[in-house]
UniProtKB/TrEMBL annotation:
It holds the Pfam family CBS. It comes from the Bacteria. This is Transcriptional repressor CcpN. GO terms for molecular function: DNA-binding transcription factor activity. Keywords: CBS domain, Repeat, Transcription, Transcription regulation. Residues 7-71 form the HTH deoR-type domain. The lineage of its organism: Bacteria, Bacillati, Bacillota, Bacilli, Bacillales. Gene3D superfamilies: CBS-domain, Winged helix-like DNA-binding domain superfamily/Winged helix DNA-binding domain. The keyword Amino-acid biosynthesis does not apply. InterPro entries: CBS_dom (IPR000644), CBS_dom_sf (IPR046342), CBS_domain-containing (IPR051462), DeoR_HTH (IPR001034), HTH_11 (IPR013196), UCP026546_HTH-CBS (IPR016842), WH-like_DNA-bd_sf (IPR036388), WH_DNA-bd_sf (IPR036390).
């Protein structure tokens, strides 16, 4: 998709016509531009989907009065975690720090989610947690990861239905790189890790927005 915050000339003209004469039918807009209704259809679809125009059946097109930046803000606020979540990388709480380090390298992530024997979220281990553990005098082959991880209930997590913008605020405020995306387990006794949201996902969302054809 190609980003078009710059609408083309014809689209701008359509907006002007609807501003001045709305509600106005597609047929009437086409007449004013000396074009066929079919030629205008894609432009009208784009302008409606982007939120510049509103279409009501049997009445016609209205101008919504929203600017490009207002529409962009609305769109940013609507993005849900589910649209940008990645696969989580989880490690059992019985694993050693050494095994956790190997997983972090192999899976190429910066944050590991630690689960207990029931498969529920027990903690988080970040790069620096593992570095810190490696710098001490302890033997990383024998210390379990659950000794050094940040543990529940101090874990910040989110759900697929949450808004990505809220998560971005949380990451900044808590100064962390990522959050586990969870769902309640069937018997409600814990949280299952179903995804991962990191600063990288949010960067991807940002780039995708800039390439979105319809704002
Ligand atoms: P790093 O420490 O490698 O820079 P972070 O900034 O993400 O990575 O982590 C900082 C600290 O916060 C670490 O001790 C880590 O265990 C903890 N942490 C990371 N993510 C979370 C989270 N979602 N909830 C609670 N604590 C977290």
């Amino acid at each position: 998709m190609v980003y078009k915050i710059e609408l083309n000339k014809r689209q701008q003209k359509i907006i002007e016509i609807v501003k001045d004469h709305g509600p106005i039918t597609g047929e009437q807009i086409a007449d004013q531009l000396d074009l066929t209704r079919a030629t205008l259809r894609p432009d009208l679809a784009i302008l409606t989907m982007a939120g510049y125009l509103d279409a009501r059946p049997r009445v016609g097109y209205f101008y919504t009065g929203k600017t490009g930046s207002q529409l962009l803000t609305e769109k940013v606020k609507k993005i849900k975690v589910a649209e940008f979540t990645s696969m989580p990388v989880v490690v059992q709480d019985s694993a050693t720090v050494y095994e956790a380090i190997c997983t972090m390298f192999l899976e190429d992530v910066g944050t590991l989610f630690i689960i207990n024997k029931n498969g529920h979220l027990a903690g988080v281990a970040s790069r620096k947690d593992l570095l810190r553990a490696s710098m001490g005098k302890q033997e990383i082959n024998s210390i379990p990861i659950n000794i050094i991880m940040t543990r529940m209930p101090n874990i910040t997590y989110c759900y697929k239905e949450d808004f990505l913008l809220d998560i971005a605020h949380i990451l900044i405020e808590k100064q962390i790189d990522g959050l586990p995306v969870v769902k309640r387990s069937q018997n409600e006794s814990g949280l299952e890790v179903v995804g991962r949201i990191t600063k990288t996902n949010i960067t991807k969302a940002f780039v995708e927005l800039a390439h979105d054809e319809i704002l």
